[in-house]
Structure formats: structure tokens, C-alpha cells
Known about the structure:
The protein has 21 helices and 22 strands. The chain is an alpha/beta fold. The strands form six sheets. Strands 1, 2, 6, 7, 8 and 9 form a six-stranded antiparallel β-sheet that branches. One of its GO terms (molecular function) is ATP hydrolysis activity.
Amino acid sequence: MIRELRVSGFRILKDFVWEPKEGLNILVGANSAGKSTVLDAIELVTRGSIRGQGARRSLSPDWFNKDIVDAFFQELGGPLEGANVPEIKIVAVFSEDRHLARITGANDPDKKFENAPGIFITYTVPPSLLPRFLEECRGIKEAGGPFVLPTDYYDCSWRIFQGDPIVRRPEGVSCTRIDTAPEPRSRAVDAYAKSYVGEELDDDKMREVSSQFRRVSAQVDREILSGITVNCSGRGNFGLQMDRSPRTDWTNSIVLHRDGLPLYALGSAEQTLTKCAVSLENAAGESILLLEEPECHLSYSWLNDLVGVIANAAGKDSQIFVTTHSPFVLNRLGLDSLSVMAEGNSPSRITSLSEDTVSYFKRLSGYDTLRIVLADKAVLVEGPTDELVFDWAFRKKRGKLPHEKGIDVIECGTSHKRLLEFASALGKGRVAALRDNDEEDPDYWAGLAKPHLSNVRAFFCGALEEGKTIEPQMIEVNKDKLQTLASIVRKRGNSTDKLDEFMTNNKTEWALRLLEADRSESEVLDIPSYILNAINFIDPAPESAENE
């Protein structure tokens, strides 16, 4: 198991350190946060290759961190020329294990561990080539760019902590990257189908099928292809025959099918799930598994099946790294396996979430917990009515809707306490939670959430005397403007229902009318105090504005 991963100079990962969990690790973050790059780094350092191509031949100028490359070119011709040549270094330190004795040593390139099992891979310019490398880079700069490193000067070194170069992958370290993207043919699935043939048929049967296949090929040669002549310009005439090389062996024509339809002709979801299941089964002996956004192309029911497949694999002796944009996958696999990335920075890992809350979100996996993860600031509200009213109130006070100022308003029912605990475990910035008092003292509700409150996480609840839900709260604060409120939120022609009854029976409708009404009319209305306090907390106004 990898206990520490260090990456420097590789794409967006400028100076990256991560201590993943044993077992399952779920890596989330916004687009371009560096999640895929982390998987690439793990694959490079553990396999010495990436996506099937050797590490030495795969190097591209785009692999180097752009900030480091730009700084290097700026220094050319100055006193610091050549002092900071861009390099890539990826280090994987493993947990103590007797099977990893071969890679255990004191040659940690960062000198962090005196004696530990580990592997590292580096891309550097050797001293003998440095003058020529710098000369070519100066020429690139003098020509006006673009600043692209000449990578043919770089050496790739793949070594164990014992100091020896790695010729073939060390025993005890194995890694498989599972590609779940639909494609016409999958090598993993084809090999899986082919292996079943070898298990089900004995040698005599295999020879019999091969003989029949050869007879059919010979018949096609005699009866169809023998009469066709191909004239190659200037090279004379050629005939046609069936290919008899090993790649056209009959076993290479075997595919999985369902009800007569080959797998590649089935839907994307069926392909994705089958590829994932087959790859996990094939990788049963692998110590490290990598899955990138396995939820692509899957509906809710298919996602359920996929999560089950991954969860079963996570229960074995493998370390699994999953990147995802699906809150369902995140919740079902467990929030306690979460690490959060942002802009290539070292991820923060969830370590303080209670087992009860982890279990809660596994059971109620529809909550969009990923919005909490990715939000800069968040407001937790009970339902759509509260969200619409908060949007209206925020726009009245700040002139913009919350999302226009980077604030995510999230419906969470009455799960404020759970999500505040989650936000606390994440170390999130400002989070405001709002709820109805439901005829309970607001201090009671605040007390339930108190362990997770701080100067950046606060709880707001309407006063008892102003009503148990948002409707009477809105009526109470506007008791001198009821005619205006009624004219905005009622249906046209509806003047018989009492205002509070209408609003209670048409919750989302009245709130939507309020938000969509002409601002010159709706913004003469007042905001319930607990919503106003939440606005001032989540988006503090400048003192000058508050004093106006």
C-alpha cells in the first residue's frame, strides 16, 4: 500500500504531497484540479509506464509544470541561468511489508525516510548535456518562444530506495488502470472471454475447432479468393488468401454476447459495467487499482451496480484510487475515504467524520455532498421555498444572486447537523445553515449543531414568536405591507384564501413569484431577521455599506 505520494514539477502538481488511506481512496475536485494527473503519477512510478507506453518514451514537454518552465526561461541570460532547470520527480513510499524487502533502503531522494520501502522516477538533464540544453533553450527564448522544453536532452531514471535501477517491475508492487470508457473492442474483455475458452475446452477439442477453422479458411481461398488478382503498380500481380498468422487465430474472434448481441453493440452502461467488473476480476492479485470517473454513461440503477462492484473490490487486499464527479458514488463508497483537491495542491483528507454520519450518507446517497466539497461558500436550507426566498433576500441586499458571488445555496432537508459536521471535517470556509423552528426553541436546534459550529460555520433559525415556518416569518416581518406582499405572491384573482393559508399551501409557487417579481415592487418588502443575519454572515458587507 502507498503510504505517501510525492510529486514535483509534473503538470499541475508543482509540489504535491499526499498520504492516502489503505484500501479505498476517493479523489474529488473541480475540473482541472489535477485528479487525473495524480492517477498518471501513480501509474508512472509503480509501472514505469503510462497508458501502455514506457516512461522513457512517453515524456512530453507538456508534462512539465508551466510555472516552473516559464520561470526557467525568464532566468536565461541572467545570474540564475541554469540554476533551476525544470525536473519531474515522483516518489511512492510504501507501508512496511516483508514482501517489499527488495525495494527497502535509505535512498529516498528527498531524505525524508531513513529506511523504507519505496520507488521513485525522475526526469532530469544530465550534467554532460546541460551546456547544449541551455544553449538550445536560449535560442528558443531569443526567437520569442513558445517556451517549450527540448525533452530529448532528458534522462529518465526509475529506481528503488535501495538505490538500484529498476529493470522490471519489483515483486510486491503491481498496478492496474481500469479504463471504463465504452469502445468497440476492449482488450481486457476479449482476453477474459478467450480465457474461458481455454478453461472450458480440453486440448483435443481445441485442436478439433482449429482444424475446422483451417478447413473453412482453405475453402474460402479455393472457392472465392483464388479468382481475384491484384495488380500492384510496377510490381506484377498478386493473389489474395486468408491470413494464417497467429493474430487471426479463431480464438481472437471470440467476444462476449447477450441474447445474440455482442458486448460492443450493447449500451454504453452495459459496456462500462462489464469492463469494470472484468478488469477488477483480472486485477484480483494487483496491489493498486486506478479508476477514473467510472460513473460516465451510467443511470442511477447502473450506478448502484457499479458501486457494488467497486465496494467488493475495496474489501480485498488492494489499494483503490477512484476519481469521481458523482455524489452518489462518493456517498455510497463512504465519505471517510474522501480526499479533496484544488488547483494541483496537496489534497486534504477526511479524518474526523463520525461512523454514524458516514453510514447516514451511504443509506441516503442522494444528497449532493459533492456541492459542499466544491463550494467556496455554502448556505444550507431546508427546501426549494427557502432557497428561492434566500436568493431574493440576498439579491435585495447585495444586488446579485448568491451564485454570482460564489455562494452555493444547497437544499438539505433537515440534515443540517450532518452537513455541518461534513463541512467541519473538510475544513471548509464559511457555511451558513438555516432552518424553520418548527415550534421548538431555536437554541434547541443550534445546540444540536453546536459541536460543528465556529467562526466560519453558523446556524440561523427564525424566532418562535415570529412563526414556525418561513411563511408566517415573512408575513410577520411585513405586517405593515401585507397588501404589497399579497399582490406579489398570490395568484391573480385569488383573494379569498387567507394569505398565510395560501402561502403554506403553495410554498414553492409563492417564493418563485417573489423572486421573479419586478424588483422595484418586491424589494420594498422586508427580510426575516434570521435570513438577514445569515446573509451578513456568509457575505459580510463593507462597514460603509452597513452604516448607510
